[in-house]
Write a structure and sequence with these properties.
Distance between the termini: 29 Å
Strand content: under 5%
Number of strands: 0
Shape: globular
Low-confidence stretches: 1-16, 300-318
Number of helices: 15
Order of helices and strands: HHHHHHHHHHHHHHH
């Protein structure tokens, strides 16, 4: 690992700590709340404008942290990964998710995004030559069956399945970005990779600047708060606390915590927006999460199913909004 990585503020001590547990709790709650904030802001901000506004706020916060910590620039080998992660994770992912949540409720969107751990495992099997286990294939089938059920629920409710497809696109973009990020993390700290990827994502979303100015001028105070909150909480703070926790416990233990995100999203969406997915959508979402659980379960031989120990660590959490 490079000197930049060794100087990371997120050094890995032995064992899990209470601080790591607290950081994980903060991350999961903030990411769950993001789905609700996106849904709430959707009527007032177009998808690209919402993504750019959120990213600009996060850039200010993360840039300040980099300056205060005097974090060095990432090594040359990290920049290809930063570029891809910035465009796909902070760009395509966020815009697609924002667009998807215009047609799909927050809880349903969160359940669809939960197929990403299965996609990451599949990508690791192809890109990193990990064995394609039977449990992985079975989990993938179950998860995608769940996505089909969610799409059917959306259609049955008289809505467009475009939102479902956009959320699936977000999950695929996120998966590719996380696999690429693994290489970048070998050259720089998690904080540095996250911050610079965010900067790249903001640059990629600059074409939406006109929309952002227009939407901001007419948006109510609540929607403006949503944008600022998304930038500070679920983006700048949550990604940093996830990296902090990741350095202090195992990837598998952290990855399992993201399974509760859809449940939290449904609860928050009900409390704050009065919005509850249909029973068929809940059934489909449950299949999505169950497929992930099957894919990550132990084979009969006793070997734990992995999304790759460090590869899953790289995810910055499954279902990041």
């Amino acid at each position: 690992m490079s000197n930049a990585a060794s100087r990371s503020p997120f050094r890995r001590p032995t064992g899990a700590t209470w601080s790591a547990l607290a950081a994980t709790s903060v991350t999961v709650l903030l990411w769950a709340s993001a789905f609700v904030a996106i849904r709430d802001a959707a009527p007032h901000f177009r998808p690209g404008a919402l993504a750019l506004g959120r990213l600009l706020v996060a850039c200010v916060v993360l840039g300040a942290i980099l300056i205060v910590r005097r974090e060095p620039l990432p090594a040359r080998g990290a920049w290809p990964g930063i570029a891809v992660c910035g465009v796909l994770w902070f760009g395509v992912y966020m815009v697609a998710l924002n667009a998807g949540e215009r047609d799909v409720d927050a809880g349903t969107a969160a359940m669809i995004i939960q197929i990403s751990p299965v996609l990451i495992a599949l990508g690791a099997a192809w890109r990193l030559r990990e064995p394609l286990r039977g449990r992985l294939v079975a989990g993938m089938v179950v998860s995608f069956a769940g996505t089909a059920v969610v799409a059917a629920a959306q259609s049955q409710a008289g809505g467009s399945i475009t939102g479902v497809l956009l959320c699936a696109l977000a999950a695929v973009s996120y998966t590719i970005a996380m696999l690429v990020q693994k290489v970048a993390l070998g050259h720089a700290s998690a904080l540095s990779i996250t911050a610079w990827s965010c900067f790249v994502g903001a640059l990629a979303c600059l074409p939406f600047a006109g929309q952002l100015i227009s939407d901001t001028s007419s948006a109510p105070a609540g929607a403006l708060f949503d944008v600022v909150y998304l930038g500070i909480g679920p983006t700048a703070i949550a990604f940093t606390t996830w990296a902090y926790a990741l350095a202090r416990t195992t990837a598998g233990a952290l990855g399992a915590t993201t399974y509760i995100v859809p449940a939290l999203v449904i609860l928050l969406s009900w409390l704050l927006l009065g919005e509850v997915p249909t029973s068929l959508a809940v059934a489909g979402g449950t299949l999505c999460v169950a497929g992930v659980a099957v894919a990550r379960s132990r084979d009969h031989g006793g070997r734990a199913g992995k999304v790759a120990p460090d590869r899953s660590a790289v995810r910055s959490g499954a279902g990041t909004p």
